[in-house]
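@channel sequence for tomorrow's demo:
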Amino acid sequence: MPTGRQPTAAPGAAHDSAFLRACRREPVPHTPVWFMRQAGRSLPEYLKVREGIPMLESCMRPDLVKEITLQPVRRHRVDAAIYFSDIVVPLRAIGLDLDIKPGVGPVVADPIRSRADLERLRPLEPGDVGYVTEAIGLLVDELGATPLIGFAGAPFTLASYLVEGGPSRNHERTKAMMYGDPELWADLLDRLADITAAFLTVQIEAGASAVQLFDSWVGALAPADYRRSVLPASRKVFQAVAGHGVPRIHFGVGTGELLGLMGEAGADVVGVDWRVPLDEAHRRVGPGKALQGNLDPAVLFAPEAAVRAKTAEVLAAAEALGGTGHIFNLGHGVLPTTDPDALTRLVAHVHEATAR
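structure tokens (generated this afternoon):
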């Protein structure tokens, strides 16, 4: 699938960055730091530039995507940028009628409920997301030696939005399809795996240095259900992009009981939320994987001394990795009301505390 740029398997300006070295479990000058949702509502400059612009529209304007992606790099001095977008962008790009409603999240006009509905999930072509290729080209030129992380929603989380019609607390319809019509469920996830892999491939070929697969809702599943009904699709995504030679990260929320299985899906780095200490996560995931995480985002509302104490706990638990293969992150993402200065201080503190 040509996109105008060649795959970035060859080393680029960011190849020896602390972030990419940590992904490869190589020695680093300091523990690298970035934050999920770092480009977002915690930043006044983000609120200003997004004023009056709907979320999905903002994801389709390359100049705006570039500015928003760069904002936390400028302010916080994080070790990696993450591409500003949303997990439903590829679904909108193939023509599905959906929108992101403020205060609600993605809402799908006509949910996927039958086999006939699958026909609406056509393959994603590079031309469907030409604005992504353009925006990443602009970003890579600007970022230089700072890596850019591309991302996509995992098949299970995308399926949950499509089947439920929007966010769900208990995923009743999703689980009803998974248990009641496993063949339809498998075909749905297989199509979403192809769409997701194509979306990540576009980002890699445009210049992304790493990619992360977000499975926001998969923590709602028991391990046996994950292994049977989700793992094959996630594995298909990771296998599809393996040949590009960029690190692959897998993250889910509330996935403490799934960490070993998520490691089996094929990522190079497994993200850990704050519920499981990194040393225990290392035991569950097993050898050969870097870990990413995992300070509780709510800690940043505590006094500075408490933030530093909890940060020290995370860094001490990360010592189980032998001094390599740890990327410091929040255990989910930056909360909208987080003080931006607290994030800036946290980055500087981790860099100072782990300087080698």
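heads up for whoever presents: The chain has 15 helices and nine strands.
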